[in-house]
Design a protein that fits this description.
About 35% of the residues lie in helices and about 25% in strands. The protein is built from 15 helices and 19 strands. The strands form 6 sheets. A 4-stranded antiparallel beta sheet has the order 8-7-10-11, with no helix packed on it. The chain has a 4-stranded antiparallel beta sheet with strand order 15-14-17-18, with no helix packed on it. A 3-stranded antiparallel beta sheet has the order 3-4-5. A hairpin with a 6-residue loop joins strand 17 and strand 18. Helix 4 runs antiparallel to helix 10, helix 7 packs antiparallel against helix 9 and helix 9 runs antiparallel to helix 10. It is globular.
């Protein structure tokens, strides 16, 4: 619940609401889910998933755990969570043990995603919200420079060191001491933990915590792939059996089983349970939980017409095949749907007749009933694009949307720096790495820095033009 003294601030209230909506779209087992936005005693409140467990901070304090194993699990879980969020353009900005939960079943989840930087009034910041944060801040955060996904990676590295060693490497008696330690940090300082970390894991942490963001992993996904590669190399070393041989062994076993099934079918036994056995064999290579969860998600997201019926036909004998062959033409069901492929520049949520289809890029064509349909492409940075399509039976249709055709660009130079909001939607923080894309037309731009007075300007953006704004903020009195 947003505190009462902040709920009366329309700017803070708007940020609270906006960030809650943005984070509600994040879907990962490693991110605490936001379910709803409501009000409690007149204050905005967020309804979120309840996790049975305790914080990583509490686990570290208890000291009764396998430190290295927990660090590896934390690294994998947080990198997965950050990969999901960063693809959405959301930077957490406050990765630390207190914002990570360890559930009773062992699942590790990230909380306060995108919300930690909402409450940024000078009083709140100096008295509480930020005092614990500098111990995990990246150098660019300390300097007040623009942050991106690599900023979260630095904070994760500092957290992993604390999981293994129990030591807060940037801890201090006060804010200034923490800032000084972060500013003077060199990765060579981590060598003192070489006996507690394997060489490979220490190397990964060092790359997460490079003082220069350009020397870190480019993304959480890249760091996750490096971690998986380490695990695979370790597995090969411990088993002593090349992976290709193990795969060949499994392949031969599966082939023998399938050959036995085929022989059993040909000699005249009806209704062997081929479908269920096939699923069991796929279990060697496929995460069945992942398949089940995605099948459930697909059934929820796609229109009813697009969910394929389960093919539960059993294997038949050779004589039955011959007997049914002549009947196949007359019994084949008639199709009353076509396939539609959706593309957009940039990404968009796609709706057909108001029903959600998914978010582009959508890798496969979607079955849509024959007839006329209204397709909506939605991206929060642009006005929606609506198109009417006609789908014929067994017809393949491609429908595309290009938001950039009617888009302009905004370049900003702000002294000292500011968060940029267009029509009260957060876009970026100066200095900008690239111009901000927005739909052509009139917009309200607000530049916000908690230590200065907000600057609000009305702008008009023309298609494919770049509008330049240069301002200097005025200090609060």
């Amino acid at each position: 619940v947003l505190h009462q003294h902040l709920a009366n601030d329309p700017v803070v209230r708007e940020r609270f609401t906006r960030e809650a909506h943005a984070c509600a779209h994040l879907r990962s087992e490693h991110i605490v889910q936001i379910y709803d936005l409501t009000e409690y005693n007149g204050c905005p409140a967020i309804v979120m998933e309840f996790v049975h467990g305790r914080s990583l901070k509490a686990v570290i304090a208890a000291s009764s755990y396998d430190r290295y194993e927990l660090a590896k699990r934390t690294a994998v879980s947080m990198l997965r969570a950050l990969s999901v969020a960063h693809r959405r353009g959301i930077v957490h900005r406050d990765i630390k043990p207190g914002n990570i939960l360890v559930a009773e079943d062992g699942t590790i989840k990230l909380i306060d995603f995108g919300l930690a930087h909402i409450v940024d009034s000078p009083t709140v910041t100096m008295q509480g919200a930020v005092l614990g944060t500098p111990a995990y801040m990246a150098p660019e955060q300390i300097r007040g420079d623009a942050v991106d996904e690599r900023t979260d990676l630095f904070s994760l590295g500092a957290t992993l060191v604390e999981v293994v060693t129990g030591e807060r490497i940037f801890g201090g008696a006060n804010y200034s001491e923490c800032v000084q330690k972060v500013s003077a940090f060199k990765t060579e300082q981590l060598n003192k933990f070489s006996e507690q970390l394997t060489g490979e894991f220490l190397g990964l942490v060092k790359r997460l915590m490079e003082p220069d963001p350009d020397d870190r992993f480019r993304s959480a996904q890249e760091a996750l792939e490096a971690l998986h590669e380490q695990a695979e190399n370790n597995r090969k070393e411990h088993t002593g059996i090349p992976i290709s041989i193990r795969q060949l062994t499994v392949g031969i076993s599966v082939a023998v089983i399938l050959l036995s099934i085929l022989t059993y079918s040909v000699v005249g036994h009806k209704s062997p349970k081929v479908p269920s056995l096939a699923v069991e064999q796929q279990g060697y290579m496929t995460d069945t939980n992942f398949m089940r969860d995605n099948a459930k998600k697909t059934a929820q997201e796609l229109p009813k017409q697009t969910v394929p019926a389960i093919d539960d036909r059993r294997a038949t004998t050779a004589s039955e095949n011959a007997r049914h062959k002549s009947q196949s033409a007359s019994t084949r069901p008639k199709t009353d749907s076509g396939k539609v492929r959706f593309t957009s520049i940039p990404w968009a949520k796609v709706y057909v007749d108001g029903r959600p289809i998914g978010e582009t890029p959508i890798s496969q064509s979607v079955h849509v009933s024959a007839g006329q349909h209204l397709v909506t492409f939605s991206n929060p940075s642009f006005d929606p694009i609506l198109k009417t399509i006609e789908v014929g039976s067994e017809q393949d249709v491609v429908i595309s949307a290009d938001f950039l055709q009617n888009a302009g660009y905004l370049q900003c130079a702000v002294k000292p720096w500011a968060e940029v909001y267009i029509d009260e939607q957060y876009k970026d923080t100066t200095p900008l790495n690239k111009p901000i894309v927005c739909s052509a037309g009139k917009h309200t731009v607000r530049f916000h820095n908690s230590a200065f007075t907000d600057v609000i300007q009305e702008i008009s953006v023309r298609p494919r033009d770049t509008l330049m704004i240069t301002i200097a903020l005025t200090a609060l009195h």
